[in-house]
Amino acid sequence: MHSENKQTMTGNITFTIIKPHAVRNGHIGPILNKISESGFKITALKMLYLTRGEAQHFYKVHRDRPFYSDLVEFMISGPIVVGILEKENAVEDYRQLIGATDPEKAAEGTLRKLFAESMRANAVHGSDSDENADMEATFFFPYSERF
Ligand code: CMP
After folding, report:
1. How many CB atoms lie within 10 A of CB 49?
2. What is the pLDDT of residues 53-101, one digit of tens each?
3. Which of 30, 52, 61, 116 has CB 3.0 to 4.6 Å from 122, enough for a Cys bridge?
């Protein structure tokens, strides 16, 4: 392990995905800019395609919901950007920055108000708890890819 890699303390990180339509529409830069301007440090970042199995696993808590299979197909429809963001109170502050799941209910200036197209194509994912932030970050990033 590189000496600059580190383990972040629980509570200070959240995990994000820039979803396929936002990547397709050229919104990676503007979204990362808003994230940085809002005081988050990007400590891991990469662009990738999810496999169907990975998407099913990532969203398994929603497997009984009517939107599950469409959500999985959407999430594998193009490359995504995944990242770990560090800040005090990261989970809650990032949820404020992204706004409500339904973009019509998202507050002005939030990422979803600015970049979402629908409930499903809602531009970004953000972890909903410290525990899930750790699990989601671990799913995508070994410690050798965290800085
Ligand atoms: P996300 O924060 O990634 O977590 C679960 C995802 O399911 C959510 O963002 C939306 O993309 C999607 N989702 C949640 N509710 C609905 C819904 N009612 N219809 C379609 N997609 C939904």
Report:
1. 13
2. 999 999 999 999 999 999 999 999 999 999 999 999 999 999 999 999 9
3. 116
Going from the Cα of 3 to the center of ligand 1, the distance in angstroms, rounded, reads 38
Query: Known catalytic residues?
Result: 125
71 lines ligand 1 (CB under 6 A): yes
CA of residue 42 to ligand 1 center, whole Å? 24
C-beta 49 within 6 A of ligand 1: no
CATH of the domain at 78: 3.30.70.141
Of the candidates 40, 43, 46, 49, the residue with the CA atom closest to the CA atom of residue 20: 49
Domain count, the chain: 1
Name the residue range of residue 141's domain.
3-145
pLDDT in tens, 22-65: 999 999 999 999 999 999 999 999 999 999 999 999 999 999 99
Query: Quick one: which atom of ligand 1 is closest to the CA of 74?
Result: 11
Tell me the CA distances in angstroms from 92 to 1, 65, 71, one per residue in order: 30, 25, 24
